[in-house]
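User: Teach me something about this protein's shape.
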Amino acid sequence: MSDSEQEEDPPHLARYREYKRKQAERRSNRNRNNLPPPQATEGGGTVSLFDRVVNDRRTVPLLKLLIWISLLLFFSHHEFGSVFFLASIPVVVWQSLEEYNRGPRELSAYSVFNRNMERLEGTFTSEQWYQRRVR
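Assistant: First, the predicted structure itself:
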């Protein structure tokens, strides 16, 4: 085919090529320590690596895990490790049920944890089961 007869890439292929190009560009921009380049701020300055690490969303759970392991070791040394472990289970469950883990309109699979006990679309309820059973 000649260039004039050649068709344009489908949108998904164009997005993939753009993604690969940006990925290669990011790789070439890294310095020797394999760190991303400093990011510019609105004021013209740059954000330090420390600020980026501290403000990273993955840092807080990692920090919580390190504190938990440290406390577990401390209590284990004083022969209360199993008590600390058992006491931390409800805390972990409670933390995982908080709303910040979900988006503003993202619903839990369990309606009791949603505002106004809102159910997921297509949920099979006991009322529906009873109506089918009575017929």
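Now, about its shape. The two ends are 66 Å apart (CA to CA). The mean pLDDT is 76. If you'd like, I can walk through any region in more detail.
User: That's plenty for now, thanks!
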